[in-house]
Amino acid sequence: MRILVVEDQRDLNRLMVKTLQKEGYAVDGCFDGEEALLHLEGAEYDGVILDVMLPKKDGYQVLGELRRRGLDLPVLFLTARDSVADRVKGLDAGADDYLVKPFDFQELLARIRAMTRKRTGSRTNQFTVGDVTVDTERRVVTKGGREIPLLAKEYAILEYMVRHKGAVLSREQMEDRIWNYQYAGSSNNIDVYLSRLRKKLEGDGGEKLIHTVRGVGWILRDPEGEGEKG
Fold first, then answer.
1. Per-residue model confidence as pLDDT tens digits over 196-209
2. pTM score of the predicted model
3. Per the CB 3.0–4.6 Å rule, which of 129, 142, 150, 159 could disulfide with 154?
4. C-alpha torsion sign, points 113, 132, 192, 119
């Protein structure tokens, strides 16, 4: 999942970016409202962490512009103001949640999980495909009850695919959601990681979960004859 962090306190911005990257998110950071809107024009995000008091355009202006553009991605407001009136103003402006500084990073992570669940219409942190379960809160993947160790990018790709189970995902969509603006890797990285994922999830001769749609991309779906789950 890809998150945009908009915070003009540079130390806090960098700390949030590093914390989210450590948790497996693809993260871009910027320091003012105008830069935030440029980022949002150039990429698709699964959520925005948006400070209220920003240079050039404040958080309310950025959020207003997002909603005028018809973008319904989740937005978590950050602010040092903790009055009820300020929280009401932020929520009425279209924010999905509101977090007061200083905050605990575990609470920040929990709120990100909650607002992204809300966007996908899910009430759970667990998703399944075949006999594979992905616990997005603990970042644990199991197959038939046995834990499967994954590299960070392998997990990120699987989480993105399982959240969009049954949908064909293009290479561009995968790269856009898994890597940030600083990504300058090989164009076949997706192929490499998907090959590793297939071996770990399907094994030799196991039921196929990840399918290639030639000329289009890939799809994650339950084995033939098994109903949709998760």
1. 999 999 876 678 99
2. 0.68
3. 150
4. negative
